[in-house]
Amino acid sequence: MADKSAIRAEAARFRAFFEAQGAQLVDPPILQPAETLLDLYGEDIRARAYVTADPALGEAMLRPDFTVPVVEMHMQGGAEPARYTYEGEIFRKQEEATHRAPEYIQVGFELFDRADPAAADAEVFALIAEALAPLGLRAATGDIGILSAAVSGLSTSEARKRALMRHLWRPRRFRTLLDRFAGRAAQPEGRAELLARSDPMACDAPLVGLRSEAEIAARIAALIEDAKTPPIPEVEVALLDDLLGLRETMSNITEHLRDLAVDMPAISPAVERLAARGRALAARGVDIDGLDFEGSYGRTALEYYDGFVFGFYAEGRPDLPPVATGGRYDALTRVLGRGHEIPAVGGVIRPELVLRLGEGRA
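-> structure tokens emitted (362 positions)
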């Protein structure tokens, strides 16, 4: 394991590379207001972030990533287009089984540009690929925008679509909900009995917990309404399964997706955006004949990605996390821009992994 000074030196090398591409250096505070992150991710973020209290900030979190503070900074008056780079520690709780450090250094590149999103996607990907080229890594790509469009186009209630979208980044929970909404799986234990009562609110037990009686009543009303909703048609579930199971090269995936779009017209605009991205990547010199596309890729990342997603991996080292990851997060700029928005895409590199892999090649 390289010492911290060597990791910082490696991070500085990447940062200088991005600065040479026109990126402005920024240095967001390590301590971030918790309110913003809780608004974005809900209480789930507490399981991944280190939470503390500050007399001035109130509830605060050690920086779990750079993208959110960089977007906040840019939306307060950044130029257009804008390119930023940064380096420093981030802090994320890890499951014991991962054996990964809860604190590590990232260096990144973020691009805010509304002129040509496909070209911006290609620029970020190609620059990170160039920076990591000596390591011979495998790149994987996906598109959360296509998955979101597919869910939005399902023949079901808006409440069910919202539930599926909320868990798009949690594959097991998403599958459980999809199977239930399609009638493939039974309702949770006790729900049918509850809804069969003439008055589901009638109960001998006292109301406990954080929910008020009105909130519990609203929840029961939503469950009753959901129980009346017809199952999602099996043909649509099968098409969604096909989409999630896709594995192809970028050069071949577009026609396959266009074929799916005949029966899933909701995904057509997102598929054409992917096609434009493929052309832009090829124009940047990326070998799209050898670039992998995975239909389900990116679903375990932070939830702000809503379009292109990518990662770079060391083949033969499944014990290591991705050396670099990134993607598009247009919706995040809408949330943090408070009425303003701008298409944005970025990526991060973990320099300590670069050093470890470099040592293995020495």
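Residues 158-233 form one domain.
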